[in-house]
Every structure is written in C-alpha cells, then in structure tokens.
Write a structure and sequence with these properties.
CATH superfamily: MOB kinase activator
Oligomer: single chain
CATH topology: Butyryl-CoA Dehydrogenase, subunit A, domain 3
Structural class: mainly alpha
CATH architecture: Up-down Bundle
Order of helices and strands: HHHHEEHHHHH
Radius of gyration: 17 Å
Strand content: under 5%
Distance between the termini: 23 Å
Amino acid sequence: GKLQMLLPLLSGSRSSKTFKPKKNIPEGSHQYELLKHAEATLGSGNLRQAVMLPEGEDLNEWIAVNTVDFFNQINMLYGTITEFCTESSCPVMSAGPRYEYHWADGTNIKKPIKCSAPKYIDYLMTWVQDQLDDETLFPSKIGVPFPKNFMSVAKTILKRLFRVYAHIYHQHFDSVMRLQEEAHLNTSFKHFIFFVQEFSLIDRRELAPLHELIEKLGSKDR
C-alpha cells in the first residue's frame, strides 16, 4: 500500500546507503511505539493528519521521535547522492544562487565559516547526531523528563536539516531524477514540511529557498 511507496529505501541496496550511522529508537520502548504509530498513519496517505499529535501523547516526545526519523530519512536521501556532491561540484553550501550557508555550531566553531557543501553537510549531520545521542537532550529511558530547552534544540536541528533538503533540491535534483528517487524525496520533504508547519517549528524566513515548492505541496492538500 501507501507505506511501501514511502519506504523504497528498504529495498535496493543503493538507496539504503546512509551517509552517517542510522539512529535507532530502542525496540519495545514507548518512543518505538510512537514511531510505529507514525508509520501507520503515514500509510493512510493523509499527511496533514499523520503529523498531528496523537491523543494523550507528550508533545516533546512526539517531536523527538519525528526528529530522529527525519534525520534518518535525510541521511539516506543524501547518502544516495553523496558521489555527486563534491568539493568541486559544490564549493559552497548553497540552495540556489540567492542562498548560501556558512557553518557555525556555537561550541567548536563559533564564527561562521565558509565551506563546501559536503563539508558543511558533514558538520551539520555530525552535530545533529551528537544532539540525538545526548541522553540529557533526547532521553530514551521511560520517565526521564525532557530538558527545558528541548524545543529550542529541536527547532535548531530541524532548521538545519531543512538546509540539506534545500541543497539537494537546488543543486542535485537532476541526480535525484536519474536515480528515480524523486517520489521518495518529495514524500519525505512533504512530510517534513507538514510536520514543521503543524507545530510552527521553522521560521518562514528560513524556508524561503523552497518557498514555491512548499506552496505547491500545500495547495495539493487543501
């Protein structure tokens, strides 16, 4: 059904190449149940409904589970095109001619540095991975509360993950088409956008590089 369409990454070895190690949600945990719920509702095909907070669930936990899932999805999508995203093809991290990103994480690199897209995305995904692996930020144990700053951390993670989608769409869409991954990319991105819209997680200004695509995805669903 619809879910199979959504997860072509489980078939074919090529598309299961991950750029970074996949982040697993422990089986048998409540978060794992939530992930299964998310996958089941995605299968219904109604993405607007699929992103809504399930009744009686904790918002932080729902955002945590989905953030991990988006990290894994983007990781796989980028993994399929890493060979086309090189120092020479992408000397700067851009999303079209009008948007260029410089990397800073506030701890190791305080002053934004200009770097190639593969370097930038490596920094970005490593940084996200470090946040997801931090038990004080993303507790995997039952009953361990989320920290007060969880929302702002999640927003920063999602804002940065968006940039990887933006780069793929602007600079590598031809490769995505050649690999016949566009349906997979579009579904993943649409799910991501509906999710961040549902909980107002990314500032409109940040979404500007893919504004037209976002409008188009939204209008089909009204």
